[in-house]
Structures are given as C-alpha cells and as structure tokens.
Amino acid sequence: MLTRRLLLAALALGPPPALADPSTLAPDMARITARQQGLIIATAVDLPPYVATAADGTLAGEDITLGGALAEALGVAHNFVQADTPDDILGVVARGGADLAIARLSITLDRARTVRFSRPYLVLRHALLLNRHRLAQAAPGLDPPAALNTRAAVVAVVTESGYADAARRLLPKATLRNFTRWQPDIVDAVRQGEVFAGYGDERQVEAALAATPEAPLQLRRFVLDGTRDAVAVALPWSSLQLLAWIDLFLENRLALEEGWKARDQHNDK
After folding, report:
1. Which of 38, 81, 101, 127 could form a disulfide with 202 if both were Cys (CB 3.0 to 4.6 A apart)?
2. CA distance 243 to 238
3. Do residues 236 and 94 lie in contact, with contact meaning Cβ atoms separated by under 8 Å?
4. Do 95 and 143 have their domain in common?
5. For residue 223, is pLDDT > 50?
6. d(CA 145, CA 72)
7. Is 132 found in the same domain as 99?
8. How far apart are CA 234 and CA 184, in angstroms?
9. Cis link prior to 49 (omega < 30° from 0)?
10. What is the C-alpha to C-alpha distance for residues 145 and 147, in angstroms, rounded to an integer?
C-alpha cells in the first residue's frame, strides 16, 4: 500500500523533468542534477520495516522506497550511503556527505541545530516490546510503565536515538541499556530475557511480533498513548531549495493519501 502511494505521489509531481540549464537552478539542486551519482541518500543499515539490508547488500523497506521515489520525481539517479546510528547518519548529512537522510529520523530540537527537517512524512506512537516473564517477575499487576520505572528493570534503547531520550523522560528510574540496532539486537535481547523491554515505535514492535512465532507466549506489546514521534527527511542546513521541493512532494503525497482514503470510505458504503 505504501509503495503504491509513493508512486502516486511521484506521478502527482509530473513526469521526470528534463535536465534544466544549471544556471537556472539553485546551487543545491544544480549539484544533484550535475553529478553522475544523482541524489545521495544517507540511511540506516537495518531498521525494519523502514530499511532492510539483504545478504547481497540489496536495500529494501519503506524509507528506501521513499528515497527512490524522490529521485525518480527529480529525474536523477540515486545512491545510498549507510551508517550505524542516527547521529552517524545525521553527521553524514551535516558534513555534506549526502544530500539528505531518510532513516525513520525523529525531529528533535537538538538535531535541528545542525540539520534541517522536512515536514513529517510519518507520525508514530511510542511502544514497548515486553518480555512477559520478566515483566511478571518485576511487578505483577502493574501496568508496564509503572512496572518498568524502577532501577531493577532494564530497558533496551537504540543508542543516540530520540526514543532513548524519551525513555529517560518517561522511565527516569529504569536502567537503560544501549544497543546499536532495534532488529535483531534489541528484539533478541527482549526475547531471551536479557532485558525487560525494548523501547521503540509501534510499527517496529508490530513487525517484531509478526516475525516471532513464539511471540504470544514470550512477548507483549504496549503502546504508549499520548506519545507522538514526527519522522522527517533530514537535509543540510544550506539546502533550502531541495527542502522546499521535498516538502511539496510530501504535501502532494498526503493529498493523494487523503483522497485515496476518502475514495475507499465511499466505496465501502
């Protein structure tokens, strides 16, 4: 479904443009159209369902599809560069090693000091992936946030992520343990009982449960209502024209999604 909507958004912007006279383009756009590599996109190594790296190095996932759709609408080739942590990915962009970054990046005030963010293309709720046995041992009868807000409870977070910051605020007494990746690092740690819970987003937790056959017996999901994580494309602070173009692309995509939703509702009547 997401892939179809991304392609529709690209169509809404029109066919890939003919290469314009570089002298008429803003510097950030001219740089992309002039180089053989086209659009250079920084992304994660593995961040299912947003980014997944196959054994042969092939990339897939929703953010990979979005990057390809942006390049297609620009009428240029595209290449991905990968980094391990969110701060590493943003560092590539801030230093000019990529034109933009797409890697389920949360908008934060701290990050906005060094990069610019597009309008959000995804809004998620925070969620916990819980080990049922460890949670029952910790505080039977309490809801997960209350049960985990103790020094004895170990909660896994991705290093340098917005969710690590959120976990510190929501669970100030919990012991946080840093991992490089959600999948497989944090998911395996929760499944094996090495930690009580993993703190991530609702879609990551859903994907982990779907991929674990024994999930109903071992694992549990808990969505933290009232939380909101705005996810956006990150760009160098100097790329004002590219930022405006991406915002227009995302605005058109949102309009198409709303139109598609209205059509579905009408057809269901």
Report:
1. 127
2. 9
3. yes
4. no
5. yes
6. 44
7. no
8. 25
9. yes
10. 5
Number of domains the chain contains: 2
pTM of the model: 0.82
Please state the length of the chain: 269
Residues 42 and 73 in one domain: yes
Q: Is the pLDDT of residue 212 over 90?
A: no
Whether residue 192 is found in the same domain as residue 170: yes
Identify the CATH number of the domain in which residue 80 sits. 3.40.190.10
Pair 198, 143 in one domain: yes
What are 226-240's pLDDT values in tens digits? 999 999 999 999 999
pLDDT tens per residue, range 110-156? 999 999 999 999 999 999 999 999 998 878 889 999 999 999 999 99
Same structural domain, 53 and 88: yes
- Please spell the DSSP secondary structure of the chain, one letter per residue: -HHHHHHHHHHHT-SPPPPPPGGGS-HHHHHHHHSTT-EEEEEES-BTTTBEE-TTS-EESHHHHHHHHHHHHHT--EEEEEESSHHHHHHHHHTTS-SEEEEEEEP-TTGGGTEEE-S-SEEEEEEEEEEHHHHHHH-TTS-HHHHH-STT-EEEEETT-HHHHHHHHH-TTSEEEEES-IIIIIHHHHHTTSSSEEEEEHHHHHHHHHT-TTHHHHEEEEEEEEEEEEEEEEEETT-HHHHHHHHHHHHHHHHHHHHHHHHHHHHH-
In this structure, the answer to whether residues 136 and 235 fall within a common structural domain is: no
Q: What are the angstrom distances between the C-alpha of 36 and each of 27, 31, 33, 111? A: 16, 10, 8, 30
Residue 106's domain comprises 2-122+229-268
Both 53 and 129 in one domain: the answer is no
